[in-house]
Amino acid sequence: MNRKVYVILLGLLALLLLGACGGGKDREGYVVFYLNTEGTKIVPQEIELENTNGIAMVEELLAALQTQPSDATVRQTIPTNVEVLGYKESSYQLTVDFSQEYYQLSPTDEILTRAAIAKTLLQVEEYSYVMFTVESQPLLNYSGELVGSMNADTFVENPGGQINASQQTTLTLYFANMDGTGLVEETRVVHYSSNISMEKLVMEQLMEGPKQSGAQSTIPAETKLINVSVVDGICYVSLDETFLNQNPEITEQVVLFSIVDSLTELGNVQKVQISINGDTSGKCRYNYDLATMYEADESLVQGSETIEETTEE
Questions:
Q1: What would you report as the CA-atom Rg of the chain, rounded to the nearest whole angstrom?
Q2: Who is most buried in 19, 21, 183, 185, counting CB within 10 A?
């Protein structure tokens, strides 16, 4: 599974991850996070711990994670065929070692399981970080990338109750050059929360404007993104009417293809259609019909720069 597909999978999964209560540090008692029977979210259930010592608490919590709860609506977090081979503490980090069967988890179950275990164990105040290993080797995700240490910020809960695994991706964005007649490529490394789709992330980054010198934004300030979705390789972007208040010094072609070329850099997008509040009957400005589905036009591109950016959703 390639990196882009994995990131897209995370974004789709995050839309299914519904509310889980916060860690037990700021509430009475502790909770164990289980998976619901449908495998679509993690569910907290209260637990009374007999111990107050860090490693002893870890033993109790891991035992609970490996036990099928009496509640029939949830299932044990660590599958029966996955063994906990050991655990060790170092400074503020707890490392848990699993058997090779951990890698038999499906991509969806693995992300849910990882979140449930980490959130359960991070309630123990002695540890600020949790790391997983498999047969003593650091855990790799389905893109073959190192997962590394996880802390409370790795799984961010927003007011809507979704769990957002912190991710990093590289986007290729296109902005207008200073005379408005061509596009300037900007490669931007973005740290973001996975409850946002890649298409929305591209549009939001594009609407923020360039971070490099010698480029300018093609989308008018205060423009609102109404919706963005992909169906059968076509990305449908709906903006509000503010989008029509374009800078006349930037050509209509540059405005249009800054969006089209940026979105088609994503592997799942081949064409782009733009609408104003869902209406495709008008034009981008004068010549380009909104009803048309546009493919990338690289002939306008000149120059490039790499920027690192952080965003939270």
A1: 23
A2: 183
Distance (Å, rounded) from C-alpha 272 to C-alpha 261? 9
Measured CA to CA, the distance from residue 309 to residue 21 in angstroms comes to 29
Segments making up each domain of the chain, as ranges: 18-161, 168-310
Beta sheet of 42-47, edge-to-edge order? 42-47, 30-36, 74-75
Neighbours of 3 (CB within 10 A): 15
Local confidence pLDDT in tens for the 313 residues of the chain: 555 555 555 555 554 444 444 443 433 579 999 998 887 788 899 999 988 888 999 999 999 999 999 999 999 999 999 999 999 988 788 999 999 999 999 877 888 899 899 999 999 989 988 999 999 999 987 767 778 888 876 665 443 444 555 678 899 999 999 999 999 999 999 887 666 788 989 999 999 999 989 999 999 999 998 878 887 889 989 899 999 999 999 999 999 999 999 999 998 999 999 999 888 899 999 999 999 999 999 999 986 555 555 454 4
Asked whether the CA dihedral 115, 122, 18, 79 is positive or negative, the reply is: positive
